[in-house]
Amino acid sequence: MSTSTVRYSPCYTVDDYEQWEGDWELWNGIAVCMSPSPSPLHQFVATSLAGEFRELLRKNKGCNCVVISECDWRIDSSTVVRPDVTVLCHGLPKKYIDYTPALVAEVLSPSTQHKDRTAKKELYLQQGVHWYLIIDAEKKAIEFLELDNDRFVERSTGDSQIRLSLDKDCEIQLILERIFQM
């Protein structure tokens, strides 16, 4: 005689998520713990990138894009992620990101790098994020993935600079060495 066991898998919602303490994300109803906290190097690179984007966006007079970091993006009632750095080009939301960003950057950590390269990459692709940056702080390297015909294509940085078109009125030239300068 064979017995089969039914495995219970909870399916959480944004309402559940709002009650939790600590650092969490919600992926298709599944709670994902975001601890331990990022390392000082991780945070240094993330804030350097955000600062560099902010400076470049301010210099671009025709651009209405803004940069934010560590802010919840509510994709739907069962998915909330918190990218390290996000560029938004359709206004600054009041409580959380509620539309697809032009750019999302994730700084790799030992505990999250597999998710950043697989599940989050696929999620950002499905949501139509135009630029996805995967940053390896230890190696001082950035992968620039651009949405092209429903897939991400890696763009070369050539001479350690890359031009990013964020919106029809917003294009910036990012110099890579500034992100990792201490």
Helix and strand topology:
Elements lengths: L13 H4 L6 E4 L2 E4 L6 H20 L6 E4 L3 E4 L2 E3 L3 E4 L14 E5 L5 H5 L1 H9 L3 E6 L4 E7 L4 E4 L5 E7 L2 E6 L1 H4 L2
Parallel strand pairs: 7-8
Antiparallel strand pairs: 1-2, 3-6, 4-5, 6-7, 8-9, 9-10, 11-12
Commentary on this structure:
This protein has 182 residues and is of the alpha+beta class. It has one domain (37-180): tt1808, chain A (Alpha-Beta Complex), CATH 3.90.1570. Helices cover 23% and strands 32% of the residues. The protein is built from 5 helices and 12 strands. Strands 3-6-7-8-9-10 form a 6-stranded mixed β-sheet, sandwiched between helices. A hairpin with a 2-residue loop joins strand 11 (161-167) and strand 12 (170-175). The radius of gyration is 18 Å and the shape is globular. The mean pLDDT is 90.
